[in-house]
Amino acid sequence: xxxxxxxxxxxxxxxxxxxxxxxxxxxxxxxxxxxxxxxxxxxxxxxxxxxxxxxxxxxxxxxxxxxxxxxxxxxxxxxxxxxxxx
Length: 86
What we know:
The radius of gyration is 17 Å and the shape is elongated. It is an all-alpha fold. The termini are far apart. It is built from five helices and no strands.
């Protein structure tokens, strides 16, 4: 892994935040899912753990965003069909 200075890390964080803030919520939720996927494969550093409250806010926002698509009668019907098939 390449060592980064604090200013380089801040620059990356600022770039990511800048991009994500401009995305529609659905796309930001996808970015969050991808970041979690990468984080699951990478040991968390204490720097990432320091942002845990911020992560909870992103989680809440993504759940709210996805709920409008997943918590629908159509989605319930689709799951019911799949459950019958198994």
